[in-house]
Amino acid sequence: MQEIIMANMHNNPLFLVAQLVGFVGMIIYFFSFQTNKKNRILILVMLSSAVWGVHYLLLGAFTGASLNFIEVVRNAVFSRGEKLKRPLVWAILFSALFALTGFFTWIGILGLGTTVVSILVTFAFCFGNTRVIRICATISAITWLMYNASELSVAGTITEGFALLSLMIAFWRFDIRKKPQVKEKNDENQ
Fold first, then answer.
1. b vs e for 29-62, b when ≥16 Cβ sit within 10 Å of the residue's Cβ?
2. Mapped to the 3 state alphabet, what secondary structure does the chain carry?
3. What's the confidence (pLDDT) of residue 187?
4. For 121-136, how does the pLDDT look when each residue is reduced to its tens digit (9 = 90+)?
5. If you average pLDDT over residues 7-34, what whole number do you get?
6. Crossing angle (nearest 10°) for helices 154-170 and 38-59
7. Segment 75-95 mean pLDDT
8. HSE (CB half, 13 Å, CA atoms) of 121?
9. Backbone angles phi and psi of 78, in degrees to 5
10. Residues in contact with 93: Cβ distance below 8 Å, sequence separation at least 6, in sequence order
């Protein structure tokens, strides 16, 4: 695989530009889950998705590009939070867009996987709390890791590895570490 990547870098300067753009998306995405505010997560993921859309276009990975550009709009809509009217309608609309995109850019099982996790994350952003969002993002990161490897996205593969690390840190900070504190407070009240 390393030989294929090196050959692409030497023969196609656009491939190197695509990787550099991907590293910018990686930095933004890494910081997105280090907040415990749903709206901040959505805004940072929205920015990251826009950068990733450009990255995948430069690689010629049209499923990834299309899904990411739809994610930008989806996250903008869902960032309205409680002000969003008819969230189920929006979730169904975006899920249909993802499904159509997956159908028209079909490249095989990995394209189907990225489409399915985009739909899953849509419902998590629409109805889930930050913990549910992190759980769905973990499933998404694993699926995108495989997609990125298949599309020779060096930045994407590294990003999903870092995303998994970032998510594990966030689980520790917001879900695991806080539980003993709640128990200690209950013990003090008794």
1. bbebbeebebebbbbbbbbbbbbbbbbbbbbebb
2. CHHHHHHHHHHCHHHHHHHHHHHHHHHHHHHHCCCCCHHHHHHHHHHHHHHHHHHHHHHCCHHHHHHHHHHHHHHHHHCCHHHCCCHHHHHHHHHHHHHHHHHHCCCCHHHHHHHHHHHHHHHHHHHCCHHHHHHHHHHHHHHHHHHHHHCCCHHHHHHHHHHHHHHHHHHHHHHHCHHHHHHHHHHHHC
3. 47
4. 888 877 778 888 889 9
5. 82
6. 170
7. 84
8. 29
9. -75, -15
10. none
Per-residue pLDDT tens digits for 44-81 = 889 999 999 999 999 999 999 999 999 999 888 877 76
Predicted confidence (pLDDT) at residue 182 exceeds the cutoff of 60: no
The residue to which tokens 């003993």 are assigned: 180
**Tokens 């495989």 belong to residue:** 146
> Distance between CA atoms of 95 and 1, rounded to whole angstroms?
34
Give residue-wise pLDDT tens across range 134-154.
899 999 999 999 999 999 999
CB 138 within 8 A of CB 99: no
How many of the other CB atoms lie within 10 Å of CB of 8?
A: 18
**CB-CB neighbours of 104 under 10 Å:** 10
Lookup result for tokens 């867009």 = 97
Residue 30 has pLDDT above 70, yes or no: yes
